[in-house]
Amino acid sequence: MSDDIFEFIDDNEVTHQENNPDGDSTHSSSSWKILIADDEPSIHEITTLALKDIRYENKPITFLHAYTGKQAIEILKQNPDTALLLLDVVMETDDSGLAAVEVIRNQLNNQSVRIILRTGQPGSAPELDVIQKYDINDYKEKTELTSKKLFTTVYTALRSYNDIIRLEQSRQGLEKIINATADIFRQQSMEKLVSGVLMQVMSIIGIDESAFYGHSSSFIGHKNKQLDTNDANNMIIISGTGKFEDQINRPVNQTLTPDIIHHINIAYQEKHNVFTDDSCIVYLRNNSLIYIDGYKKLNKIEQSLLDIFSANVTVAFENVELNEEILETQKEVIFTLGSTTEFRSNETGNHIARVSEMSRKLAKLAGLPEEEAELIRLASPMHDVGKIGIPDNILLKPEKLTDDEFEVMKTHTTIGYDLLKHSSRPIFQAAATIAYQHQEKWDGSGYPQGLSGRDIHIFGRIISIVDVFDALSSSRCYKDAWSESDIKKYFSDQKNKHFDPELVDIFINNFESFADFRKELGDD
């Protein structure tokens, strides 16, 4: 609306490049967007001419143009990453610029873009009133904007915008770390933890490139834990994405170039992250690391976020290793108790081992999740643990038990349950349920509670089948092993009586695989 144009001085008096040897910028775009909103075309031309050679942090300017307040709002909707808005106050209306500020800040919720009001009619929008009432970052009269002052104003605004973006990226990055760490700390197995860490690192730095998780030296839960030298020559790829996806269990020194191996060794020796022009090595204190290949160069914020994340992940690894040690101890206790019971009751040599593996197999065939299938495998050795409370004259009697003796024998279910029920550990809770319910029958004629149908826990129903199958398949001092045809007929006859009919169908349909496994793990 004004005929006042900028008063220019020699452009040679200004330097259009900030000294920034690192070229480090958090802004992901290849240029800085500046929106010029003014109803005078000449203002657009002169502003563009004055600023066209500016580079901030080694990135040039991209100019966007609006000639009304409404156009400015629409362009910002499409370009929310605009760094600076040079906004005329008076365009299609006397306050269109001020109205645009309200929409940008309150409706578009764009708090990042720097807004500089420019007016050729300062009387229509007094500076003090505007600064106090509107969320703008500067107020300039067009007559005061020489080329040098315009440059200084724009440069300062870009620096301010970049600082805001850095802070926002830091906030978002820390939020990702908090979420990622929470997710990772929920993982209870090393395999899932490794996969989760790899995925979360890629998410934090916002890339989808080839990467792998590698480990050297002792690695609880991994078959290569005998390694004891912490360098790339003894590193195994545990999990990978992209071109490393099919390199699992391969030595790193057979996969990467000598130059990259050199950087990995530096990470190990100096125990910190290493960043090169086209790769990133995230060092984790548990003698493992993440290698990311062909990624964009990380800025300082992203590097700092990875430093924080790697420290948190190390704690997660230590927790999982501790959990796995506890789990291994629980397994040993369970198998030792199960073996003791097996030995005392003169069960055949590998009975509990076969029941354990076959229960997992049937659970998987029945559609149970991997976690539950593994839980029943670990807990099943305790199904007869209550027999340690049965007197020898009853437990070891070769003849048929009397009614009174059988009543005593039946108490092994409640004895086992009472032994195990007080533990809060999932394995012992599952073992307690199995010990209590594995003698229940589908039709309700079992013991000790007389449960029927689906009131019997799925673990109890599964153990009931595999325990009886193994017993029928075994030779005892008082009987010969049954033939496979007789065993199949027995289970068919007992469907809907002793056993869950659906589980029986699954078992019979896969009978050969169970029989083959039974033969493979025969009695010692």
From TrEMBL:
Residue intervals of the Response regulatory domain: 33-157
Keywords: Phosphoprotein
Residue positions, PTM 4-aspartylphosphate: 88
Domain of life: Bacteria
Gene Ontology biological process terms, A to Z: phosphorelay signal transduction system
Domain HD-GYP, chain residue ranges per copy: 326-523
Keyword Phosphoprotein in annotation: yes
Entry keyword Phosphoprotein: yes
UniProt domain STAS: residue ranges: 1-161
CDD domains from the UniProt entry: HDc
Pfam families linked: DUF3369 (PF11849), HD_5 (PF13487), Response_reg (PF00072)
Example of a GO MF term: phosphoric diester hydrolase activity
Protein name as it appears in the record: Metal-dependent phosphohydrolase
Organism: endosymbiont of Galathealinum brachiosum
